[in-house]
Amino acid sequence: MFRIVSILLIFLSYSIFSQKNLINVDSIIKTDNYNVIKNIEYGEAERNVLDLWIANKNKNSPLMIFIHGGGFGSGSKESAYSKNNFKRVEKMIENGISFATINYRFKNNNDGILISLNDAKRALQFLRYNSDKYKIDKSKIGVMGSSAGATSSMWLGFFDDMAKLNSNDPIDRESTRVSLIIGIAAAHTMDLERWKEMANIDKEYMDKLVLQYIGKFDKEKWLDNDFKKKYIKKIDFFDQMDINDPPFFIVNFGKNRKPKNIADFHHHPLHAKELKIKAESLNMENVIYATGIGLFDKSQKGMNEFIFEKLK
Questions:
Q1: How confident is the model at residue 13 (pLDDT cuts 50, 70, 90)?
Q2: Residue 141: partners with Cβ closer than 8 Å, 6 or more residues away
Q3: What is the mean pLDDT of residues 168-193?
Q4: Which partner for 149 in 67, 102, 227, 255 could form a disulfide, CB atoms 3.0-4.6 Å apart?
Q5: What is residue 145's DSSP assignment?
Q6: Up-side HSE of residue 103: CA atoms within 13 Å toward CB?
Q7: Is residue 194 packed enough to be buried (19+ CB in 10 Å), middle (13-18) or exposed (0-12)?
Q8: What is the rounded CA–CA span in Å between residue 152 and residue 42?
C-alpha cells in the first residue's frame, strides 16, 4: 500500500511541470482576485522577466521560485500555468507561500549554460533585495525546477553563497542561500564523464550524444579538455554538496535504459540514486524518488508536504 502511495505521489509531482494545456491565467487573476504582478524586469535582457504571485499583501511571506525546463534552449515561465501546475501554485498561495516563475536567457556559444544559471541567480537576488516591496520573507526562499530548471535549482542551492559583498550593485550583494531545493528530472552532476560512468555507456556512443547536444556551437571549443575542466568547475554542483546545504526533494521519472539522447540521459533515474548516495554519505536531509529503479523514500512525503514543512 505504501509503495502505491509513493508511485501516485511521483506521478502527481512529475506532471506538474508539463508545458502543455496552459490555462488562461489572466482570466483566473481577474475572477479570483489574486495579487499578481506579471513580467517584472529583474535584469536588462529581454528574457529577464518574472511573474510574482503574492500570498499576503499585508505581511512578508515565504517564497517559492520556479525555474522552467527546456534543455537551456527553450521553454518559458508560463509552464507554471498548465492545469496541474497551477493547482500547486494555488495550494502554495492558500498556505501563505508566495510564488515566482522566471524566464531566463538560453545557452550560447560564449558561455554555454552559465548565462542561464546566472540569470536564475540574478532573479533570486533581485527578489531578495526587493523583499519588502514585494512582501517576501527573505529568510524563507526555496527554488524548484524541472530538467534544466532542476539543474539551476541545485546549482543555486549547493554552491556556497555567491553574493558579491564588494559589488557596487546592491542586488549582487544579496545572498544566494535558499531554504530548500526541489528537482524534477534532475541530473546529479554537469560532468558528462560521470554520466557515462554512471550508466556504463561506451565512449563512442557518449561522444555521439554530446555532439548532438553541442549542435551548431563551436565543437573545437566545447570538446577541448582544458576548457571543459575549467567550465565544469563553474557549473557543476555535485562536488559542492555538503552538510550545510539546504534539504532537497528529487523525483526522477525516467526509465532505466540506454539513453536515446542527452535529454533522455538528463532524466535518467540513476541520477537520483547518485544524489541519494551522496546525500546519505554527507548526512544531508533529502527526500528522493525514482520509480524506474524502485527508489522510494521511506518518509512517503509528497512535494507539497515537503515545501510547507520547510517554508512555513
A1: very low
A2: 62, 63, 64, 65, 124, 127, 128, 178, 179
A3: 97
A4: 67
A5: E
A6: 19
A7: middle
A8: 17
Q: All 3 cell numbers of residue 306?
A: 515537503
Residue 81 sits at the vertex; the CA angle it makes with 76 and 82, to the nearest 5 degrees, is 105
Domain 2-311 fold is Rossmann fold (3.40.50)
Provide the whole-model pTM: 0.93
8 contact partners, CB below 8 Å, separation of at least 6:
none
The sign of the torsion formed by the CA atoms of 149, 154, 159, 165 equals: positive
SS3 196: helix
- The C-alpha atoms of residue 29 and residue 301 are separated, in whole angstroms, by 30
- Ordered by start, the domain boundaries in the chain are 2-311
**47: which 3 cell numbers?**
528574457
Give me the helices (H) in the chain, please: 2-15, 25-32, 83-94, 114-129, 148-158, 192-199, 203-214, 219-222, 225-235, 262-266, 269-282, 303-311
DSSP characters over 197-239: HHHT--HHHHHHHHHHHHTTS-HHHHT-HHHHHHHHHHH--GG
Q: How far apart are CA 260 and CA 234, in angstroms?
A: 27
- Which whole number is the average pLDDT over 155-181? 98
The HSE-up count of residue 102 (CA atoms within 13 Å, CB side) is: 33
Round to whole Å and give the CA distance between 135 and 182. Answer: 22
User: What are the grid coordinates assigned to 69, written together?
Assistant: 525546463
Which grid coordinates belong to 183? 528537482
